[in-house]
Amino acid sequence: MGFNPIAGILKRRLLIVFLAVALLVAGVLSFRELPLQAYPGVAPLSVQAITQWPGRSTTEVEQQITIPIENALAGVPDVQSFRSVSLFGLSVVTLKFKEGTDSFKARQNFSQYLASANLPTGVQSSLSPDSDATGEIMRFRLEGDGVDLTTLKSYQDYDISKGLKHVQGVADVSSFGGKVKEYHIVPSPAKLQSYGITLSQLITAIGNANNNTGGNLLRDGEQQFVVRGVGLLQTVDDIRNVVVNTNNGVPVRVRDIAEVEVGNVQRLGQVQYNDQPDVVEGIVLLKRDANATEVLAKVREKVAELNNGVLPKSIQVKPFYDRQVLLDITMGTVEHTLVVGISLVLAVLFVFLGNFRAAAVVAAVIPLALCVSFISMEHFHVPANLISLGAIDFGVIVDAAVIVMENIMRHLEEGAEKLEDAIIKATNEVQRAMIFSTGIIIVAYSPLFFIGGVEGIIFKPMAFTMGFALMASIVLSLTFVPATTSFVFGKTLHPHSPAFIAAILRWYKPLLRKLIARPMAVFATAITALLLTLYSATFLGTEFLPTLEENNLWLRITLPNTVDLDYSASVANDLRTYFTKQPEIKQVSVQIGRPDDGTDSTGVFNQEYGLYFAPPDQWEAGMTKGKLVERLSKHLEKIPGIEYNFSQYIQDNVDEALSGVKGENSVKLFGNDLNMLEAKANEIQAQLKKVTGLVDVGIFRELGQPTLNVSIDRQAAARFNINVSDVQNLVQYAIGGAPVTQILEGEKSFGLAVRLNQQARASYDAIRELLIDTPDGQHIPLSMIAKVEMTDGPFFIYREEGKRYIAIKFGVRGRDLGGAVDEAQHVVGSNVKLPEGYTVKWDGQFNEMKVAQGKLMVIVPLTILVIFLLLYSTFGNFKDALMVVLNVPFAAIGGLLALHIANETLSISAGIGFLSLFGIAIQDGVILISYVNRLSQSENVREATVDGAALRLRPVIMTAMLAGLGLLPAALSHSIGSEAQRPLALVIVGGMVTTTILTLLVLPVVFTWAHRHRRPPPRDSDVNPTAAMLP
User: Fold this and answer.
1) For residue 572, which of 609, 613, 611, 601 has the smallest C-alpha distance?
2) How far apart are CA 271 and CA 291, in angstroms?
3) How wide is the angle at C-alpha 205 spanned by C-alphas 201 and 210, nearest 5°?
4) Rounded to whole angstroms, what are the CA distances from 226 to 219, 479, 746, 755?
5) Are strands 36-37 and 771-773 parallel, antiparallel or unpaired?
6) Which of 330, 401, 677, 766 has a C-alpha 20 to 30 A away from that of 864?
7) CATH match of 182-264+706-794 with 3.30.2090.10
């Protein structure tokens, strides 16, 4: 006899056990190095050019900033799409890159192309932080006993942010709220006239008085000195004493013509928290691909360091949102699911094998196979997220080991062989069938490696984990299981099959014979059940992915675009007070407007509320999140002139990153004329409000910004010998308060602005009457050389792929996403007529769902075709291959019924569950037909089918129960972190019920009927009836 690999394994069993222990240690170490994510960064890689141009109108920003940047970035490699938004004083241009693009390379190319943009003098763009839509891992506020907002803001910008940015893994720290310190020179128009000083002279004098100079080096003997001319302004008195001009030989100082005071930059945002109407907030951003748990631990250490030594005792950093809380809750959900799943698997193994040692050997394959996955994931830099890892089916992982162990136990139950002989013979019998059938499951998972987008980011780690684990399970089943079995079993062990298996067989074999005798009735029943189930699937509805619960609400409220910060803050005060009184809400944060760095392109009319939940035991009896949203919505409906939508903290950021719109879904109307866009958007909004299930419908309005235009009459200005720059200085500095220079205070820098007092610029008429000096000493009103008029301009200008658009956002509640949007598309298409050159695009979650469905519609049939070809090449005939593949649609019956019972929709998560289910169904069919084919060489087809199915009864039921019960906890869970797993698990749990019935009752009937003309074997044929190798 030749060398038998299994015999060699048994001779080296000590080495096998040692290697298994080493694998376990290596796997644990690799798992600790994997970056675990509660919610993966599902948004594609994007980079933004953020350009602030204070005081400039939306139209100017678009024409002079946004369009030049878009043109400069047009050739950046690997770009999938680009979009932009222009608004008052701010331009944000976003490039979304193709999946798989390296972040460092993308940012490098982006910077190189951006440098070629032709921007106005003094204007510079900055890149967005190297983070993603899920990168906001901590929010904190500053508490200062008796400390004013200006001082708190200064500490935030120059001490706290700098300290936290030094933490490895932190991409940036964004500041929001507070008041930025600024020095103000407030000239008196009357005193300027009295001394004959123009505004331009004052601005020039201030700039010239705030400089240091260098005098190079001076030698003195053998030494040399650095020569400095120190002239920087440092105090208010320094500013007051700046000489602007002379009058009859007497110097005219700033104090003679103006007041100098310490004030604040005009605010574009404000933050409120619980009972505090005005606070300073910081937002810590995680660097892309960094480990959130590790970074958060370091951030907390840094916060403690700041609180205990760096900051004054009166100032403290107080975190109020920490991603680790969500990580811990989600990890707890996953751990519970895994522990219960593994326990159920172990129980099934013990019950069906009738031996605890055999069950333990098989169960040990689970951690060992997962260790191989963790090592491989670390090596190939595959991130791990708790959403997909919680959906791993341990029952499928141990299928290969079950096949081997069950055959070993059957040989031992027959009692005719020694332990080692039984192990060798049983393993050799099933190894080819086991390898092939497990390989089929791996092929069934292969579509997950080719899908992209959000669904790919979430579920690819699961595919990698399952793929590596299944390959490892094959090796472990042929090495670890035989070796360990020879250790733990006594040499005289003769186990007995559990009594209930014999009872089932006594019932099963007569039933199967009756069904084989009535094939047409069986076919009709199966086909009818399939057709009815497929028809019922049309009522399930479709959605992209289940909403991932975050234990909070993120409420966005939009006021009329013309409101100022004070009015917006007063509305937020009232709502914040109402929200804090709700027992279900533990804390409330409010963001009004935008942060200082321009990373959120909005205005003071925009309010965002973080509503963080109290523990469940503090909620009113019977209250749910959905009911809470309804209660809050009823209150919001009482406030006139607002639009609102509910989301969640991370979800809101992801939705905006995917589509560029602050909402779950949107209709984007493209065209050039803003007035036409707004008119047609109103029509679309009216139609959307008619569709049942569509909520939070609102337009991101672009027009209506009141604008005071100062249009210079060049001919009139020339008659008075007035330069255009003098008028522009009046607008930019005296009215707008633009900084003239910077005052340095150690490492801190604050602006110094020249601005007329509030009374001189308080109204349209006051600005018209502002006096401007002529070279010959006259003082004429601005209206004599410029046309001052009120007009309406755009608030925002949105662009995508170089085209203007307006967005109408909406959400879907109480109805499936696919059905609601399909109806909405029909209603809008039938009732809204668009002018030539205007187009509509439906974006957001619906678009992501359609893209994902399109990919699966191509990849899944190709996968089934590949599996069929593999089966055909293995069985060598069309009939058997087709019979196994027919398991696929029939296996779907249970999955669809489970979704119906649980009131779930057909989502991408459920679709991935069907892929797993199809692989398992094919595995059972392969091994059953292999048995029957082998037995039919010594028996007629009917008896071979009955005997083969009886032999496969225990392993088929075992694998079905293992696959189903392994995911039963995930299917029943409604805890935080279970949302994406539940549809997948439901499909597999339900599908395994019908797959088992199909394999044990329908497939044998089909096989017998398909081979009814096969000739019976010769009477003297002698074939081992227990062999199960593939031909």
Assistant:
1) 609
2) 29
3) 155
4) 9, 77, 21, 38
5) unpaired
6) 401
7) yes
CATH superfamily of 497-539+876-1031: Multidrug efflux transporter AcrB transmembrane domain (1.20.1640.10)
| Three-state SS sequence of 783-850 | HHCEEEEEEEEECEEEEECCEEEEEEEEEECCCCHHHHHHHHHHHHHHHCCCCCCCEEEEEEHHHHHH
Q: What architecture (CATH level 2) is domain 552-705+796-844?
A: 2-Layer Sandwich (3.30)
Decide if 645 contacts 811 (C-beta within 8 A): yes
**pLDDT given for residue 502 in this prediction:** 83
In contact, 663 and 645? CB cutoff 8 Å: yes
pLDDT at res. 268: 87
Q: How far apart are CA 870 and CA 861, in angstroms?
A: 14
pLDDT at res. 149: 94
Q: Alpha-carbon distance 567 to 557, whole Å?
A: 14
Residues in the chain: 1031
CATH of domain 44-131: 3.30.70.1430
- Can you tell me which residue has the tokens 């399930």? 540
User: What's the CATH number for 1-33+364-496?
Assistant: 1.20.1640.10
Q: Is-above-0.85 flag for pTM?
A: no
Are 887 and 927 a contacting pair, CB within 8 Å?
A: no
**Hey, what amino acid is at 555?**
L
Residue type, 872: Y
pLDDT reported for residue 120: 92
> What is the CA 626 to chain-centroid distance, rounded?
22
**Do the Cβ atoms of 375 and 899 come closer than 8 Å?**
no
pLDDT along the chain (1031 residues), means of 10: 75 91 92 74 85 89 95 93 91 91 93 94 90 89 91 93 94 92 90 84 89 83 84 91 88 92 90 94 90 90 93 93 85 78 82 84 90 88 70 80 86 76 86 83 82 76 85 93 86 67 87 91 90 86 78 91 91 94 94 83 90 91 90 92 87 80 89 93 94 89 83 88 83 82 90 85 80 81 87 89 92 86 93 93 87 82 86 84 84 89 85 83 81 77 86 83 81 74 87 87 89 66 42 36
- Euclidean distance between CA atoms 775 and 721, whole angstroms: 7
Sign of the torsion angle spanned by Cα atoms 613, 614, 616, 621: negative
Q: Are 464 and 377 in contact (CB under 8 A)?
A: yes
